[in-house]
Design brief:
By secondary structure, the chain is mostly helical. It has one domain (6-52). The protein contains three helices and no strands. The protein is globular, with a radius of gyration of 10 Å.
Amino acid sequence: MAKFTADEKIQIVLRYLNGNESYREMGRSLGISDTIILNWVNQYKQNGLEAFLKR
């Protein structure tokens, strides 16, 4: 599984929120599970950018 930086995760989340692609379409194009994208989006909605900062 590919490791994504915090910046990459944020870009993916914003791409989803601002675009017309589904989780499944994005997952397929990025080579990752759509569930991962769904989790990132939910984390972002709950915690904003801080969701991806190292603790």
